Amino acid sequence: MELREYMSVRRAYNLVRQETESSYRLTFEEFAILCRLDMANAPIKTSDIADYQGALRPTMTHRTNHLASLGYIDRDEGTIDRRNIVCVISEDGHEYVMELANRTRSKIPAGQPLARTSCDRICKYVDAMGSVYCTAGELVLLALYSDANDQCTITHLVDRLGLLQPTVSMSVSSLSEKGLVVRSRIEGVSSRSLSIGLTQEGHDDAKVIADKIAALVVRRRPRS
């Protein structure tokens, strides 16, 4: 998978998430779980989903509990080991994942990667992307890493990532404290506008994540 494809889908879904009523809002990781279950069209063990996302069991329990409470997945306990819970997408879950995929596709501007792709293809990308967890701060690093703009501002990052301005501002502040980004004044521009760039350590961290994304393989749906 190309980094620009990853960023295109993440930005689009961030915009969709902002517009979704809070009670039905899913994290990207929860969206990815639905995509994986929908593509499999068969029960999957919770432990296998946790392995796929590299998540701890309590984290996966929280995610699947949320999806189950919304009626998007059904869960059954194993007959031998009650901890061996399997998940399967429900009809409502299938309809909702298609809705999210369609809305995500609609948020990709013309000329951007995957702007003309199908809902089915969006699901395949989200499924693959679900195995690489990225915080808001890591998305900021990736945006700076992939952007040739040498005077990147908070406003530019907000547009680039589809995240809320407070989220981006707090992420930049945290990254600055860790020595991963540096902020400097832009000559001839309001003192409130600061140019944000990667330090060498930030560049190295971003490259590690970018390499993981480059290794992702977009799967085909199993043949029926």
Description:
With 224 residues, the protein is mainly alpha-helical. It has two domains: 3-129, Arc Repressor Mutant, subunit A, CATH 1.10.10.10; 136-214, Arc Repressor Mutant, subunit A. It contains ten helices and five strands. The strands form two sheets. It has a three-stranded antiparallel β-sheet. Strands 4-5 form a two-stranded antiparallel sheet. A hairpin with an 8-residue loop joins strand 4 (181-185) and strand 5. It is globular. The chain starts with a helix and ends in a 10-residue tail after the last helix.
Summary tags:
2 domains, Arc Repressor Mutant, subunit A, 224 residues, three-stranded antiparallel sheet, mainly alpha, 5 strands
CATH structural architecture of the largest domain: Orthogonal Bundle
**What is the overall number of helices?**
10
How many E-type strands? 5
- H and E order: HHEHHEEHHHHHEEH
In whole angstroms, the N-to-C terminal distance is 25 Å
CATH class of the largest domain: Mainly Alpha
Mean pLDDT: 91
CATH fold-level label of the largest domain: Arc Repressor Mutant, subunit A
Which class do the helix and strand fractions yield? mainly alpha
Overall 3D form:
globular
Strand order of the largest sheet: 1-3-2
Number of domains: 2
Biggest β-sheet, characterized? 3 strands, antiparallel
Rg, alpha carbons: 19 Å
- CATH superfamily membership of the largest domain: Winged helix-like DNA-binding domain superfamily/Winged helix DNA-binding domain
